[in-house]
Amino acid sequence: MKEPDWLVWARQLQAIAQTGLTFVRDPFDQERYEQIRGLAAEIMAAHCGADRARIEALFADQTGYATPKVDVRAAVFREDGALLMVREASDGRWSLPGGWADVNQSLREALLSEVCEETGFEVTIRKLAAVFDRSKHPHVPVRPFHIYKHFFICEIAGGAARTSLETTEIGFFTESDLPAEISIGRVLPYQIGRMFAHYRAPDLPTEFD
Fold it and tell me: Cβ contacts of residue 187 below 8 Å, gap of 6+?
């Protein structure tokens, strides 16, 4: 599903403004970049029904050269081939454990930390199955920033099921018995299907957009 043009344009304007404000020296150019950032916020607010000041503040918090954000997701399989999923506290829907990679974390460190915090399990990472550009997949809702989503195949190495501030339930599901309510802002049903495919065929190459 193609993202709407207004979102692509607004995101690009924000990135131009952010990078420009990082390197600008002329005060008049700085004012122009700030105006571009404000225009990007106005476009998003007009189409999303959000408060412009809130979006502009969100953009203003971003500094440095604009690059995509990094999301990590763990497809953790039990010995019987069932997939670990978590019910998200924020929307009450099911997802693969994961989240944003933090500064000073490698992808491995981010993934291990997110899985342990959200589920109570320690895992071993077996492979990077996919790197998806979120904007090229029909996730809802849309996001103001560009995001790369990294999916890893994992297996349980220890620990025990435990919920967290972010999760209200832990469950294991087969491919034919996935929960109906999927948190599609985080993961899509066909992406889950691809994780089962990689679990069954470990030699499949990493997928990427």
Answer: 73, 95, 96
Domain residues for the domain of 172 are 69-208
How far apart, in whole angstroms, are the C-alpha atoms of residue 137 and residue 17?
26
SS3 93: coil
In this structure, the answer to whether residues 117 and 26 fall within a common structural domain is: no
Indicate the helix (H) or strand (E) that contains 26: none
User: Are 32 and 95 members of one domain?
Assistant: no
Amino acid 7 reads L
Give me the CATH number covering residue 94.
Answer: 3.90.79.10
Position 1 confidence tier, pLDDT thresholds 50, 70, 90: low
3-state class (DSSP) for residue 101: coil
Region label for 19, one of left (φ > 0), alpha (ψ between -120 and 50) or beta (otherwise): alpha
pLDDT tens column, 76-86: 999 999 999 99
The single residue listed with the structure tokens 């501030």 is 165
Closest to 72 (Cα-Cα) out of 19, 44, 112, 34: 112
67 contact partners, CB below 8 Å, separation of at least 6: none
For Cα atoms 96, 94, 51, give the angle at the middle one, nearest 5 degrees: 100
pTM of the model: 0.80
Enter the DSSP assignment of 206: P
Give 145's Cβ-side CA count (13 Å radius): 19
Nearest to 156 by CA among 52, 79, 50: 79
